[in-house]
Amino acid sequence: MTVLAPESVDLANLVDPELYATGDPYPVWRWMRDNDPVRLHAATQYPAFWSVTRYDDIRTVYNDARVFSSAEGILLRPLAHGKDPGGGRTLALTDPPHHKALRSLVADWFTTRSVRALEEAMRGAVRQVVARAAGLGECDFVTDIAARLPLYVICRLMGVPDHEQEMLFSLTSKAFGAGEAETRSIAHQEIMAYFLELMYRRMDQPEDDLVSALVNGEVDGNLLSEEDILLNCDNLLVGGTENVRLAVAGGMQTFLDRPADWERLHADRTLMPTAVEEVLRWTSSATHIMRTVTEPVTLRDRLLEAGDRVVMWTPSANRDERYFENPDVFDITRRPNRHLALGAGEHFCLGAMMTRTEMRILFTELLDSIHHIEQTGPAVPLRSIVVNGLESLPVRITAK
Ligand code: HEM
Hints:
Layout: H1 17-21, H2 26-35, E1 38-41, E2 49-52, H3 55-62, E3 68-69, H4 98-106, H5 112-136, E4 138-140, H6 141-146, H7 148-158, H8 162-176, H9 181-204, H10 210-216, E5 218-219, E6 222-223, H11 226-257, H12 259-267, H13 272-283, E7 288-293, E8 297-299, E9 302-304, E10 309-313, H14 314-317, H15 352-369, E11 370-375, E12 380-381, E13 390-392, E14 394-399
Parallel strand pairs: 2-10
Antiparallel strand pairs: 1-2, 3-7, 4-14, 5-6, 7-10, 8-9, 11-14, 12-13
Bound molecules: protoporphyrin IX containing FE.
Protoporphyrin IX containing FE is lined by residues 70, 74, 91-92, 103, 150, 154, 236, 239-240, 243-244, 247, 285-286, 289, 341-343, 347, 349-351, 354-355.
């Protein structure tokens, strides 16, 4: 029997960015989880797709990279934009076995040991960022604090020299900020031009960094093409910065709304690891991840055909009441907390360890060195169906 959604739930607008900026997608996802967990979403400016909203089903899709392929793209793209240029070429957009070979080229920079080796430098960078923000008095938590550590880290990994990082910071702020489409596009082209030049530098003189690994490493006995190297650099830069910025800023906003949790974390730092996991679950900044079906398959009671698109709504999985106890409660002691904010399976976030470390260091430094933080104006949410979180969060910080 078809269950009709109540009028308050508009099932057609999951692809409307306005829903994430000014609306509330959670009742829509909840209705879908309860009534139509694998639901066909009709074509709009995007192709038709199956919406998957339950935790278990999303894990099933993540865990079968052969049937649920990443090679056609992992994000919904307007039909008019055509195919994703990174399809079959970047780490996130390749399938096994090619994917494993590509991942092993860069995996060394993301191991526990590599992350630990960077910790001291991260702490130093965060100290400077927080001191600068406190010096400003009023600042934007998103651009002045949350965005800075992840960019610093990815620049270190990619081998961007210290004196070029500020320039790259300003370009990424423009490219991924809220400005005009043209300004963003120009900034993005300048970033690509920068990496093209860095790639040539590393071809002449390799160093111990990710760009050199991409330039000199072989996948299936072949060097990567220049275009593939650039697409992978872009992927790492975006992957390494955008989501951490959103998770940290969303986490801070949550703590500002719940000062008792901030105080509790201040008093008991042993809660930091579970608090970081809960911030990841709560913010679930990667709104959706897509796959394309390679052969007929049944998902729950639906028959999916080869070529069908499957869209997994991460925040919905992370609030699934079938899996989490009191999923709508923010609980910094939650344990276990096997959320899907960082994906799962073959493409599980390569930067997971890095992310957790960055978040722990940043929140610890804020707790240690600031006396008071307060919001000074309305937070501005992002207008996007790809990532969710804050565009800006005005705050006033007083140092100890
Ligand atoms: C809060 C922070 C982050 C979130 C929420 C996040 C989320 C995700 C998700 C959901 C995936 C899976 C995509 C898929 O299955 O198609 C993924 C993959 C990936 N992430 Fe992250 N990420 C974060 C931070 C980072 C950082 C800091 C880096 C790098 C420094 C990074 C690099 C990557 C890469 C390279 C992949 C592709 C891995 C593969 O395809 O094998 N991410 N991330």
